[in-house]
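Write out this protein's structure.
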Amino acid sequence: MEDDSGVRRSLQLLLTGQGYEVRAYPSARGLACDPQALNADCLVADLIMPDSDGLALLQQLRHAGWNGRAILISGHIDDGWEARARGEGFAAVFTKPLVESALTDCLGKLMPSPPAA
């Protein structure tokens, strides 16, 4: 979940290159309209999006029965937001600009191994 198309595409390419199956959405509404969304193992969401925020999105998914892991990214994280995000259930919180290896290392710890290429 990333509203900036360049960042969204970059993350999609990075994670696909690591062997993960990725669905990328520009908005919370786009994710909510995808019937496959609840099958995801992990959510990587931006804090601030045009139609919602990452915290509300995770709450919405949890309410719908989704039990996957979640990672929050944002250029607007401070100690208060990070504490709130972790309290809402995000396993990790990263600031932008994102260090790609930090995200992939985190996913490696949170997720089952991606399929072999």
